[in-house]
Design goal:
By secondary structure, the chain is mostly helical. 64% of the residues lie in helices and 0% in strands. The protein has 10 helices and no strands.
């Protein structure tokens, strides 16, 4: 296996440190040192800016985005459409986490969501916080469409309440997977495939709470 490039080392260090401390708790210099670099201008040299590094952190998850799109499309013809949409949200996260050992992706997302409005599904710019330290992240349109379609399936709730329920369920999944990552570090993790099945069932139950039909 080829050695990681300096760009990859900087991306990995940023993801890990943000996962552990949050975006506000990490400095550019700390990321540079954690990546084993001595040049204080390494982030600017390789990415152009700190925001550009963060944007690339998201964009390197292209495989996950493609899986969201694939599963979302398949859900259109599913007999249990809501269940299939839930799977389209959960499985790409699980796939990303399974691809790395250790994984920091769920914890990174958990920290990112901590700075985002609780109504992010219904807000004019979903997944985009008002905090200027967060860069605008491109390429989240597939995820935004998926969350919107999940909301349309919650017909047992008033229309205005649906996005908030989806946002709550989405945060639950991310936090549960972040806990799984922490447990794995401690050596007490559960089988990830079984955990995915349980997470889908729990997210579905959370979405359907208040429905007399289920």
């Amino acid at each position: 296996m080829p050695a990681p490039s300096t760009r990859e080392e900087l991306l990995d260090a940023a993801e890990r440190l943000i996962a552990e401390r949050g975006l506000a708790g990490v400095s550019v210099r700390e990321v540079i040192r954690a990546a084993g670099q001595r040049n204080n201008g390494a982030v600017d040299y390789y990415f152009g800016s700190w925001h550009a590094l963060l944007i690339e952190l998201w964009s390197r998850r292209a495989t996950s985005d493609a899986l969201v799109r694939e599963l979302h499309t398949a859900a259109e013809d599913a007999q249990d459409r809501l269940g299939a949409l839930v799977e389209a949200y959960v499985r790409p996260f699980v796939t990303e986490i399974a691809a790395c050992s250790p994984s920091y992706w769920a914890r990174f997302n958990e920290q990112w969501l901590a700075g985002i409005r609780s109504d992010f599904v219904a807000s004019p710019q979903p997944l985009m916080p008002d905090d200027p330290t967060y860069p605008p992240i491109p390429g989240l349109e597939n995820l935004q469409r998926l969350l919107a379609d999940i909301a349309t399936e919650l017909r047992h709730l008033p229309t205005g309440d649906r996005p908030a329920r989806v946002a709550l369920a989405a945060r639950f999944v991310v936090s549960a997977l972040a806990s799984w990552e922490r447990d794995r570090v401690a050596g007490v993790w559960r089988d990830l495939d079984a955990f995915e099945t349980e997470l889908c069932a729990l997210m579905l139950a959370l979405l359907l709470t208040g429905s007399h039909a289920h």
